[in-house]
Amino acid sequence: MSDPIATDPNAGADSTPESTAKPPVRIFLVVVDESPELQLALRYACLRARKSGGKVALLYVIEPGEVQQWLALENLMREEQRAEAEQKLQKLARDVNRLTGTLPALYVREGNRRDEVLALIDEEPSISILVLAAGVDPEGPGPLISYFTNRGLAKMRIPLTIVPGGIGIDALDAIT
């Protein structure tokens, strides 16, 4: 999908002094999955984007399936997964628009989720903050948070915001 957000902060800039130049728009990246914590990360990103004049970007990663023996079946499954990803992103885009008044950038990628998050961050200089919400399961906060707070942190060029999974909507609204 193409990025509806201008990524060049100098596009259309004239020779005005830096003190009067607008700062680049902050882009809050949210990774879309099926976890209940997604709604917390999305709401936090939307509220912060709205209050800071920023935008939201949504990334859906289709992870490779284990059935790779039959190419025709694999292609059909991939098409179905992509259609599901696009449907989910469109629904979430309406939520983002309702909360921020702007449309988000939408990305669909195939591969390992953490690798694709890092690749998108490297490819899109406009992305300025990664927002994730922690899971409340006894197994831990979730695979992305576990990775990015350990080995993956050194690979990040942007800040990571972790929304506590146990926070209520009212408390979330109060801190944003």
TrEMBL record:
Q: What are the UniProt keywords, alphabetically?
A: Coiled coil
> Could you tell me which residues belong to the region Disordered?
1-20
Which InterPro entries is this protein grouped with?
Rossmann-like_a/b/a_fold, UspA
Coiled coil where? 73-102
Q: Where is the UspA domain?
A: 26-164
Task: Show the Pfam families listed in the entry.
Answer: Usp
Q: What protein name is recorded for this chain?
A: Universal stress protein family protein
Write down the species.
Azospirillum brasilense
Give the source lineage, highest ranks first: Bacteria, Pseudomonadati, Pseudomonadota, Alphaproteobacteria, Rhodospirillales
